[in-house]
Amino acid sequence: MTILKVLKQITPAPLWDAARATYDTLARFPDLGPAYLHPRRRESVRRLAALKDIHRGQRGFIIGNGPSLRQTDLTKLRGEYTFGMNRIYILFPELGFTTTYFLSINDLVIEQCAGEIMALPMPKFLTWRSHRFFKSHQPSAISYQPSAISHLPSAIRQQPSAISHQPSSFIPPTFLYTTYTGPKFARNAAGRLWEGATVTYVALQLAFHMGFERVILIGVDHSFVSKGEANKTITSQGDDPNHFAPNYFGKGFRWQLPDLDTSERAYRMAKKAYEADGRQVLDATVGGRLTVFPKVDYASLF
After folding, report:
1. Closest C-alpha among 270, 281, 261, 245 to residue 88
2. Alpha-carbon dihedral of residues 92, 96, 100, 104, nearest 10 degrees?
3. Taking a C-beta distance cutoff of 8 angstroms, is the pair 194, 201 a contact?
4. Model pTM?
C-alpha cells in the first residue's frame, strides 16, 4: 500500500477533501492567467456571455456516440437544438444535416482530428488546452456559404468573427476553460468547467448556461466493450465496438479508456443543479445503462 493511500485512510474525509481541493487549486494556478487573459480566451468569454440564456425555456438534445445511435431515428432531430460531440460528424453526410453545436474536450481526439473539426460550420466549443493544436489549421483557409449557419439563432449568426478577414458566415472556435480536477457544476460556462471524465458532462453545463429548460440525452450508452484502467491511453487495433461506427476510433487511433465511476458522480451533480433550478435532464438512450436521470421513451418526445 502506498503512503498516499495510508494517509487517505487515516485522515478524516472532510479534511482530506479540503486538502485535495487546495492542492488542485494550487496545481491549476499557472493556467489561470492564460485561461482568462489570453486574447483568444477573452474573445471566447465575450462570445459565451452573448450565449447566456439564449435558449431559455427551450429543449435541447445532447447526442452521445454509443452504438445505440444505430437504433435511434435521428431524422426526428432535424429542426431541434442539438449538441454533437467528438466524432459525431462522421454521421452528418448520412443524416443530411448537422448538429446545432459541436463540443470536444479530449486532447487526443482534438489533436488527431483538428483539421476535420475546423472544417465544421457550426459553433464549436473546445477545451482551452486544445488551442495549441490549431496553429497549423488556421480558419483563414476555410470559408462557408451563409446557408451553413442559417439554422442558428440570430444572436449567434450576428456575432462578429474573432478574425476580421473571415467571411461573415465563419464561426471561430469558442474555447472553454475545462479542468480534470476540482469537481463542480458550472452554471456560467465563461468560468471554469469540471470535465467529470466525460464530454457529456461539459455539454450539460454548456446547455445549462444557454438556458435550456429540458435536456434530453440520447446515445449515452454508458457501457464499453473495451476494458482496462480508467483514463489509460490505448491505440485501437481494429474496428471500434464502443461507438456508432467502426471507424469512430478505428485502427491506429489513440484514445482513453472511460472512467464511468467519475462520470456517474458528475451526472449526479448535473441532475441536482438542473432540478434545483426547476429544469430537467431526461435519458432517452435506447438500452442505455446510465441510471442517474429519469428515463423517457425517445419516440414519445415527438
Report:
1. 245
2. 0
3. yes
4. 0.84
Nine-digit cell string for 263: 462520470
Length of the chain in terms of residues written? 302
Reported as a pLDDT band with limits 50, 70 and 90, residue 126 is very high
| 75 in Cβ contact with 249 (< 8 Å) | no
Q: What are phi and psi of 252, to 5 degrees?
A: 90, -10
- Contact by Cβ (8 Å): 74, 88: no
Contact status, residue 260 vs residue 105, Cβ threshold 8 Å = no
Indicate the domain borders of the chain: 1-37, 47-301
The pair phi, psi for residue 265, each rounded to 5°, is -60, -45
How far CA 198 is from CA of 175, 202, 204, 262, 298, in Å, comes to 17, 7, 10, 9, 22
pLDDT digits (tens, 9 = 90+) for 6-33: 666 777 766 655 555 555 555 555 666 6
d(CA 217, CA 293): 9
Q: How many Å apart are CA 243 and CA 249, to the nearest integer?
A: 8
Rg of the chain over Cα atoms, rounded to whole angstroms, equals 19
